[in-house]
Design goal:
The chain has helices at residues 16-19, 32-39, 56-69, 81-84, 93-108, 124-127, 136-152, 165-173, 185-208, 231-254, 259-267, 278-284, 338-350, 381-399, 443-454, and strands at residues 2-3, 9-13, 74-78, 112-118, 158-163, 214-220, 224-226, 289-293, 298-301, 318-319, 356-360, 365-366, 404-410, 424-425, 429-432, 438-441, 456-457. The chain is an alpha/beta fold. An eight-stranded parallel beta barrel has the order 2-3-4-5-6-8-11-13, surrounded by five helices. Strands 7-9-10 form a three-stranded mixed sheet, with helices on one face. It is globular. The chain has 15 helices and 17 strands. The longest helix is centred in the middle third of the chain and has 24 residues, at 185-208. It has a single domain (2-457), classed as TIM Barrel, CATH 3.20.20. The protein starts with a strand and ends with a strand. Strand 15 and strand 16 (438-441) form a beta hairpin. Bound molecules: 6-O-phosphono-beta-D-galactopyranose. The site of 6-O-phosphono-beta-D-galactopyranose (BGP) has 13 residues, from loops. This is Glycoside hydrolase family 1 protein. Belongs to the glycosyl hydrolase 1 family. Keywords: Glycosidase, Hydrolase. Its EC number is 3.2.1.-. GO terms for molecular function: hydrolase activity, acting on glycosyl bonds.
């Protein structure tokens, strides 16, 4: 048996916009997702938008009971900014009541709520004034964070500011997967910069309010591997790493930007507009703990014909299709558990061995109904193998001193996922969206319960 440390957090992660539903009731204002769906429903897989998602707004009590049945001791979700403060200023009491009831019911079942503030769900009123492109977003986010800490600080002791901030930067301003779907490297950098400053503002509010507990951020630390040891491939890897990993990791943990990133942005005319005092603020707001989402690594090689200045990240490095890679055939993503060990040791060696946890890991499967047996249970042995292999790598790193305090799967009940809708299923529980959102356990939920109760894997 490979034992994990006492008190290890075992749980699952989700987000408000992907699970709550109730998109436009009880005072909630629209987000970019609600509006985008209204404008272009055909962009969303099978035309399923953010309106219902997994109906957690109505069914959270049932889910919390299932979490207790599965012996989960923690659960991460987010607050919807547009629900809590529909116009950015006025507190929506119905939202306060909903979240307080939700968090209390988790706590009563022995499940610690870890609460995130922003998971790609920009309120529409803020988008209309430029979203993260506008410097005003920093103050607006700080105010929202302050209100959230005041309203729920007695119930929540682990807060995170953002989930995968690089994703709304690249998906919204480079790759057209999120609204406003523009393609502009310079604007993307500015959006990233303001997001980071909004994070520092929230950390400052948390500490100023003398709230108990800890504050952190959730980053997708996609490790980058180069095709070869040739200097040009290594250079491509370093650029990809500076843009995708160090860009957020260094400032939040070390309190400053990596010099190679500043240099890279300078050379390509991509430096963002800043304000006096930003640097000092970064240095003063380093985090207490880190959440790490890991799905698959990034493999890169040098580009054939670099464009100077770079118009897109693909002018700086090219994706590399590693011939030996193992693929999840049901989602197309690479499966490479060894990267979790590499991440863990990098945090230990280069990032002050800061306390961290796996805030998302998981295996998406398209058309998962095909694995249902005659009793209605999805036989997801592929997911069990996936988790087992990742936990083995994590365990090795913990044995070697990496300060990892938990492991969360994406996700608890199948949930809606942006333009992908319900295409890729990740949950321990299947959700039947055509049948009153009925939850049915998958085989992995029984297996995971044993892991949790033993605090160990075989
Ligand atoms: C992560 C996000 C989640 C979720 C997950 C699965 O990056 O934090 O919100 O969407 O990816 O993604 P997908 O459903 O596209 O497979």
């Amino acid at each position: 048996m490979k034992k994990f440390p006492d008190g290890f957090l075992w749980g699952a992660a989700a987000s408000a916009p992907q699970t709550e539903g109730a998109a436009l009731i009880d005072g909630k204002a629209p987000t970019t997702w609600d509006k985008w769906f209204e404008m272009n429903p055909e962009k969303f897989y099978k035309g399923v938008g953010p309106k219902d998602t997994s109906n957690v707004y109505q069914q959270y009590a049932e889910d919390v009971q299932l979490m207790e049945d599965m012996s989960l001791n923690s659960y991460r979700t987010s607050i919807s900014w547009a629900r809590l403060l529909p116009d950015g200023k006025t507190l929506n009491q119905q939202a306060v009541d909903f979240y307080r009831n939700y968090f209390v019911s988790l706590i009563e079942k022995g499940v610690e709520p870890i609460i995130n503030l922003f998971h790609f769900d920009m309120p529409w009123w803020l988008m209309e004034k430029g979203g993260w492109e506008s410097r005003e977003s920093v103050e607006d986010f700080g105010y929202y964070a302050k209100v959230a800490f005041e309203q729920f600080g007695d119930l929540v002791h682990r807060w995170t500011t953002f989930n995968e901030p690089i994703v709304h930067v690249e998906c919204g301003y480079l790759f057209e997967f999120h609204y406003p779907a523009v393609v502009d490297f310079k604007r993307a950098v500015q959006v990233g910069y303001h997001t980071l400053m909004a994070h520092t503002q929230a950390v400052e509010e948390f500490r100023r309010g003398k709230h108990t507990g800890e504050i952190g951020i959730i980053l997708n630390l996609t490790p980058v591997y180069s095709k070869s040891d040739a200097p040009e491939d290594i250079k491509a890897k370093d650029m990809a790493d500076a843009l995708n990993v160090k860009s957020f990791l260094d400032p939040v943990v070390l309190g400053h930007f990596p010099t190679e990133l500043v240099q890279l942005l300078k050379e390509n005319n991509l430096l963002p507009a800043t304000e006096t005092g930003d640097k000092e603020k970064l240095a003063q707001t380093t985090i207490d703990f880190l959440g790490v989402n890991y799905y698959q690594p990034k493999r890169v090689q040098a580009v054939n014909q670099p464009a100077v200045p770079a118009k897109m990240p693909s002018d700086l490095y090219a994706e590399y299709d590693w011939p030996e890679k193992k693929i999840n055939p049901y989602r197309g993503w690479e499966i490479y558990p060894e990267a979790l060990y590499d991440i863990a040791m990098r945090i230990k060696n280069d990032y002050k061995n800061i306390p961290w946890y796996v805030s998302e890991n998981g295996m998406g499967v398209a058309e998962e109904e095909r694995f249902v047996d005659e009793d209605g249970v999805i036989q997801d042995d592929y997911r069990i193998e996936f988790v087992q292999d990742h936990l083995a790598e994590l365990h090795k790193a913990v044995e070697q001193g990496s300060h990892c305090f938990g492991y969360h799967m994406w996700t608890f009940v199948d949930c809606w996922s942006w333009l992908n809708g319900y295409r890729n299923r990740y949950g321990f529980y299947r959700v039947d969206i055509e049948n009153d959102f009925k939850r049915t356990p998958k085989k992995s939920s029984f297996w995971m319960k044993t892991v949790i109760e033993n605090n160990a894997i075989d």
